[in-house]
TrEMBL record:
Cell membrane keyword on record: yes
Stated name of the protein: Methionine ABC transporter ATP-binding protein
UniProt entry keywords in alphabetical sequence: Amino-acid transport, ATP-binding, Cell membrane, Membrane, Nucleotide-binding, Translocase, Transport
Keyword Transport appears in the UniProt entry: yes
One Gene Ontology MF term: ATP binding
PROSITE patterns, alphabetized: ABC_TRANSPORTER_1, ABC_TRANSPORTER_2
Top-rank lineage group of the source organism: Bacteria
Domain ABC transporter: 3-238
Pfam families, A to Z: ABC_tran (PF00005), NIL (PF09383)
Gene transcribed to yield this protein: metN
Biological-process GO terms, alphabetical: amino acid transport
Classification via InterPro entries: AAA+_ATPase, ABC_transporter-like_ATP-bd, ABC_transporter-like_CS, MetN_ABC_transporter-like, NIL_domain, P-loop_NTPase
Length: 330
């Protein structure tokens, strides 16, 4: 277990900004933290990198309780956590190289070693030909790459990323997320990524933590949340929000089934197959396919004319790898 958050909360005076929460993240895991503005996402990151002290609870990194460390030990432990910020937060009067080497300079790392580490990271994030540029001469995506390289300067085990793709166009966002995934694989990083963009969650999240008013409302793998019809994150991931509401408002929900499947694991003809196999009319009311991580998730709403056959149809769908996540008769 790399990172373990145990009963951590944060109060400012009388205001509780984060209720006690617990979760853990393994080596190589990407956790997306989502939630409305003011729900406590950034506060959670500040607690993990100990720029803010928790009001209660403990934060374990590689088994060590960071909240129990003295000042000197804490300084060492904090090197294991790198943070990349929204808009990259670069020093405008420093070049790319100088921005990346900042944490190394600050720690007094020997000059040749610092230079080599900086060159390696700048090259790794694809900016070797921009090493002597100033932030004002870079695109938004390039600035983020600098911020990521700087966050990795001290070879951390954990990378915290706060809205690092906000304001970037979709193509640049995708390239930054590809970089994060590649670095996660190469360095076995644990990544905690705060974002308000569902596209980001779809592309990279192993697990999702959904906060509302400082409380954890949902916390699970992206796949499990997708399968949960009551999950807010799940319906957002599939762009199914309005459809899900329409289910309850539907004139006659009898005979309706919402199903979820991984699209290349089911026969393309699954709807017409049902008609033939069960000798009943099966109407396809809505369907969509959404790429999530490396899989194509399909979600569909069908109506079965012969309600008596629904129990058997559900059993059959399960054997086909199609999960019924909502049944209009229930
Ligand atoms: N130093 C502070 N003193 C008092 N209240 C604070 C402090 N820092 C944050 N808060 C409050 O904590 C709450 C959560 O803030 P936080 O920045 O963590 O939210 P967020 O989910 O990251 O929001 P956003 O998406 O808008 O960045 C807010 O109501 C904020 O006003």
């Amino acid at each position: 277990m790399t990172l373990q958050i145990d009963n951590v909360s944060k109060r400012y005076g009388d205001a509780t900004v984060l209720e006690p929460l617990s979760w853990s993240a393994e080596k190589g895991e990407i956790l997306a933290v989502v939630g409305p503005s003011g729900s406590g996402k950034s506060t959670l990151l500040h607690l993990i990198n100990l720029s803010t002290r928790p009001s209660t609870g403990a934060i374990y990194l590689d088994g060590e309780d960071l909240t129990a460390l003295g000042r000197r030990q804490l300084r060492d432990a904090r090197r294991k956590i790198g943070t990349a910020f929204q808009s990259a937060a670069l020093f405008q009067r420093r070049t790319v190289n100088a921005n990346v080497s900042l944490p190394l300079d600050y720690l007094g790392v020997e000059k040749n070693e610092a230079r080599a580490q900086t060159a390696r990271l700048v090259e790794r994030v694809g900016l070797a030909d921009r090493a002597d540029f100033y932030p004002g001469q870079l695109s938004g995506g390039q600035k983020q790459r600098v911020g990521i390289a700087r966050a990795l300067a001290l070879n951390p085990h954990v990378l915290l990323a706060d809205e690092i793709t906000s304001g970037l166009d979709p193509v640049t966002t995708a390239s930054i997320l590809d970089l994060i995934k590649a670095l996660r694989d190469e360095l076995q990083l644990t990544v905690v990524l705060v974002t308000h963009e569902m596209d980001v969650v779809r592309a990279v999240a192993d697990k999702v933590l959904y906060l509302e008013n400082g409380k954890v409302v949902e916390y699970d793998t992206a796949a499990a949340l997708l399968r949960d019809p009551a999950s807010h994150v799940g319906s957002q991931l599939l762009n199914w929000g309005q459809g899900a509401e329409a289910f309850s408002a539907h004139v006659d929900p009898a005979g309706l089934l919402d199903v979820l499947y991984v699209s290349d694991r089911v026969p393309r003809t699954w709807v017409s197959d049902l008609t033939v196999r069960f000798d009943t009319e099966v109407e396809l009311i809505e369907a969509l396919v959404e790429p999530i991580r490396d899989e194509q998730f399909g979600r569909a709403r069908i109506r079965i004319s012969d309600h008596a056959k629904i129990p058997d149809i559900k059993v059959h769908l399960a054997t086909q790898g199609i999960a019924v996540i909502r049944d209009g008769d229930q």
